[in-house]
Structure formats: structure tokens, C-alpha cells
Amino acid sequence: MNKSRRDFLSLCLKGGMSAAALTSLQLQALSGSIQARSFSDYKALVCVYLYGGNDSMNMLVPLSGEPRTWYEASRQNLAVQGAKVLNSTSEFEGGVGLHPALNALQPHFEQQSLAFVGGVGTLITPTSLTQYKAKSVPLPQHLFSHNDQQATWMHGQEKQTLNTGWGARLLERLDQGTVFGSNITIDGANPWQTGTNTSAFALSKSGISKINALRGYEPRVEHVRRVMQTLFSEAAHPLAAAYASRLNGSIDHTLHMNTLLEQAPTLTTEFGESSLSAQLAAVAKTISIQSQLGAKRQVFFVSMGGFDTHDNQESTHPALLEGLAQSMVEFQSAVAELNLADQVTTFTMSDFGRTLTSNGDGTDHGWAGNQLVLGGAVNGGDVHGAMMAQRLDGNEDVGGGRLIPAFSNEQYFAPLARWFGLADSELTELFPNLSHFDAQALSLFKS
């Protein structure tokens, strides 16, 4: 019980906490001195991350004419057949077809609660093929690399020495970073939810968190807590006191969250048995108790893997898309049951698109791709952005069917952040490269 201050700091360092790395903002967060902004309404952003690089250009395909001819010549054995006509508000040459594996989502498109965002990818500034070849404009670092592109999508900018994710920064800009329950992951730690003064609260797919040190019968739980409280009550150093406060708060929050989840209403919506369905079921359950938590703004992170389809794409990719569509439909049904359909927006991110060319059994790492946005507030029934021509050696092809994005991912993030409550004047502080683009280009939400 007589831990010295040096011993305590050593323990913190072994746990990954560096006193030198803690900023004054972090210390304020640890001590709970940051005050949250008040909101009268409730909103949630749910990020569905598709790990591996989704071949999302194949989600939307041209149906006829020259665009279809180019598409089939480029895609070869991977060209989608039997695509269902998608009656988009915008007109595109050749018409637009929806991959049949996504049929479960079509009613939401027709009801104008689902939108696609086409031709999106990581960019620093608008880039032409000539500029790309001449390297006359700054380009994203390590294009076509899983880890680096995942980081860029989650950080909302090129990777820096100290990194924060745009989901966490968005909460912090709105002064919600220290509100318990505002930042929740069902898929463990991730860069998108890591901030200066906030980190994600992790829930399991069952929606219940476990504290390993407190497992066991009730007397053990109380004994461990008493020992910890006695130890931390002696902390005199500001860092030690802040750490003690944070740790005790984490335990209290976990027990409080579990109590609320155990009392959560039972939804009639049935979720499937897939991992993504289980994660989204946990999100829906957590959203059902948001009024008890008192969090007016929440961000959630879930994920689905398997999209690195170098092999067996003809069978693997349709199964992945079908699972994605079914899970998203289930989740939308659940939030509608909670009467929160207009206040919850679900959107996708992925490492990158994939090559137009087939390697014989699949596709390789690409660049531009398409994304999904679902929710009652979404300006749905449309393909926002661009239906890029899937044409080899075309004006956007940097080689092998890797297409230069028509829109930056920061242009995609901007309307999501704006809907969440961020002022236009703050967007470039959240997304530094947005100043190089039209921040109003994508009207993803109803006015």
C-alpha cells in the first residue's frame, strides 16, 4: 500500500502513459475539468469500416451503351450481371445498376433514406492524370498500402507524428469528448475514435463490458475496489491524482453502463448471426439507453473484414456485400423502432477501392471507390459525387485500373460533420485539406 510516487509513475509508463506526452488538455480531461457544450437534440454517427479495401466500384455499375462496353472490357470475368436498375435522382450515361447482392438496401434507396457517394478517395488537392504522372501536386503518401490508407481515412488527413481520428476530433470540437457514452466502439481501439482528450469506451458484441480484475463473486469485487481506492487516495502528485481519478471513473462508468444495458428495452427487430449484425445490435441497444446516459452526441465504430479480395472474388465479394446490406437494413429497422431514424446516420469507410482489372481470380489495391450513407436525415435516392467511367487507360487511370478520385474523402466527411453539429467555419480545422476543395460539393443531407 505504500507505493511511492516514482513507483506509481513507473506503473503508468509500463501501461503506456507517458507524462511527457500528456498535454494540458489531456490533463484537464483526466481531471474532468472540461465542460461539455449543451445540445437540445440527439444525433449519432455510426461508422461501418470495411477492412481490406472494398471493390466498391462494383456496387454501382453502368447498364448500357458505351459505359457498359468499357466496364465489361475492364472487368472481364468480374463484370456484374443481373444488376437491378437504380432510379437515381441524378442521370448518368448508361444508367446505374445496383449489385444484386445489395438488393436488401434498394427499398431504402427508393424511400430516399439511402445515398451512394461515388468516386471518393484520399486526395490532398484536386489531381489530374497529367499532374499525377508529373508529380506536380502533392499526393497522399503510401497509396495502395492498407495500413497507411486506413490511417488516412480514419485520421481525416495524412498521418502525422501525433495522430488523432476525425471522429474523436469532431466530438472534441463540439466539447463532447469528456461526456461519458459519447465515444463507443464495438470493435476495439481504432484511430478514428482516438483523440487528445477522448478515447473510445469499448463494448463487446453482447453490449456488456468486462473488467478482468473485478471478475468473480461480489466480495472480491468490493475488496479489489477498496484496495484501489485506498492506494489512490494517497496520490498527491497531479498526474497520479488525475490517473487515479480516471481509473476510478472508468470502473464506475463500466458498472453504470452494464446496469443500464441490462435494463435496456427489448427490440422486436431481429438481427442475423454475422459479426457485423451482432456489432450493430450492440449499437442499437446502446442507442436505446442514450437518454439515461445523457450523451446528446454519440459516435460508434463497427467493422467488417474480408474485403482484400485478391482471390475468389466472384464468390467472396457478393457474399460480403449481401452480409453488409442485410446488417445495415436490420440496424435501420432497429433505430426506426426506437423512433430515432432521423437522428442516426450510418456510413461506410474502407482502405481504398480496387483495380478495374481482374488478376484472374480477384482484384488488387486501387484508389477511388464508392461509399454508402443510410439514415432518415440522408438526402437519399441519389448517387452523390461521380459515377466514374470504369475504363482502362482512361483519363483517371494511373495504371491497372486504379482510378484517381473525383472527390476527396474530406469532402465526404464534411457534410457528415456538418450534420452532426459542426459549423462551416470549423470544417477546415477538422479537415485541413478541405480548403483545396469545394466543401459544399456533396449535399448528403436533407435541408
UniProtKB/TrEMBL annotation:
Residues in the signal sequence: none
InterPro entries: DUF1501, TAT_signal
Matching Pfam families: DUF1501
PANTHER family: BLL7424 PROTEIN, DUF1501 DOMAIN-CONTAINING PROTEIN
UniProt protein name: Tat pathway signal protein
